[in-house]
User: Fold this.
Amino acid sequence: MPLIPFSSQLIADVGISLGDEGKGRLIPEIADELRGTPASVSVVLKVNGGANSGHTAGGIKLNLLPAGVVVRDAPHLCVGAGVVADPRKFHWEARPLEKKGHAVYSRLLIDERSMVSDLTHRLLDLAWEDYRTNILKEEPRGSTGRGITPAYGDETGQWQITYSDFQAGHNYFARKLAQRADRALRTIQHVCRVSPETFAGFFEKLTTAELRANAEAIELGIFDQAEFDFLQFRGAEPFTLNLEKLTEVYWQAGTALAKNIGEVRELVLREVAAGHTVIGEFGQAYWLDKRHGYSPNVTASHTFTPEFFESAGVPVQRIHTVGVAKAYDTKVGTHTFLTQMDDTHPLTVKLKLLEFGTSTGRQRMVGWYDAVEKGDVLRYGGYQDLMINKIDALSGGHELLICTAYKDANGKRYHHVPRNEAVRKMLKPVYSKHPGWAEEISGVRHFSNLPRNAQLYTAAMVRSLVAVAYGDKLPPVLPNLRYLGVGPEPSQIIKDVPETSELIALL
Assistant:
C-alpha cells in the first residue's frame, strides 16, 4: 500500500508516551520518503527543551542538535525560540560530528530569541534536587541535571539571556551573567540550604558526568579533558564562583556561534513558500508537558504540536503530526507506572538490556503497552499518523499484554487518564491478552511477511488506541500507522502497514 501523502508542509514529530519512543529515527524516514519531490525536507527544527532530550538517529546519539544532522541533504538545522541551550554544548556535539563528516555549522541556525543556559542553571538543578530530597524529604524529581527547568524559570521571571545578547557586546553580557550568578548562588545557599561540602561536590559531579559523556571526543583528540573541568568555575570561598572565568568561557563559546544566530521564523516562512517541508522535532513527550503531565515528573517546556508555532515564530496553520511510541512502555525517575512489568518476567530481563537513557545512561523501567495513556494523547493532541518502534524486541513467544483501561478498588473502570494524580496512583491496569511469536522479525520489511501473531498484536495496539481516543464516535479519517520499526537501524522499518480500518478488521 502506498503511503498516504502528508497533509501539510509542516510536520510535527511528537512522542505520545513519556519519552524515549524513538522520535529521532522518524526524521530520516520522512526525509527519505520526500527526497526527490518538490516537498523535500529543507528544515529540521528543534522545538523545545535543550540538552535534556536524547535522540538517536542514524546510529548517532544527540542531545541538543536536531536529528536532521543525519539527513545530509537537509540544508537547514534550526533551533527554535522555545529552546534553552548551553553554547558550550553546541560545540561539544558539533565538533565531533564535523570530524565524522557531518556538516553542522554550515547548516545551523539558532534563533536569536533562543535562551542561553549555563553552569548556574545546572548548579540550581542539582541544588533543587538536594532540597527536594534532603530538606523536604520528598522523592527525587528525576532531573537530567542539565539545568533546563531553572533556565525556563528565568524566562518566567523575565531574567532570560538570549542568543541575541552575544551580539550586544561583552559588557552587556557580563552584567546579565553576573546578575544570574548572584541569584543562583543566593538561592542555593539560603533557599535550598545546600551545605558547603555538597555545593563543592556539584562541580565534581558535573565534571565526572561530562568526562563520561564526552569520552569519545577526548579520545579522538577533539577536546582536552580540561574542557570539561567544572572545578575551574568554583570560587575561592563557599557559594562563590570564579565569575571572570565563567564569563570569558561562555562569551567565547557564544560569540563563536555568531554566524549561526539569526531569525528562524523568516527561514521557515521562506522555505514553506518555496514548497519545502519543515519538520518540528520535539523533545520529551506529551505526558511530560509542563501543563498536561504530572508535576513534578514533567519537563519545563511544552512538548507537543501547538508549541511548534510559538518556537518557530510563525502563524498557526495546518500541520501534520506524527505520534511516536514503542510497542511496550518505558519510564525513568519516579513516575507512576501502572503497567510496569514484574522484574521476574523473562521479557523484563530482555528489555532492560535495551533500555538506557540517551542523555543520562539511566536504566529505564519497562512495562506493558498502555493504550489508555496513548489513546488520550491521540484524543487531545491531534495526530494524523503514528510510528511504533521496537516491536522486534517482543519476539520470544511470550504472551503479551495491552492495557485497555484502569480500575479502582471498587471495580470502577476508567477509559481515560484521570487528571488527578492522587486518583491515578490508586488505579490498577486492565489488560487484554495476546499470543506472542517466537520468530525473529528484524529482517522483515513488509507487513504481510510478519508472523500472524505479530500482525494481530500490531492491530490490537492500534485498535486499543482508537477505542480510547474516540469510543464509538469515530472520526471520518483515522490516523494510520505509517511506520513500524523492527530494529534500530534506519533500514529496519515496515512502511506498508494497512490503513487503520483495514488493520483493525484483522481482529
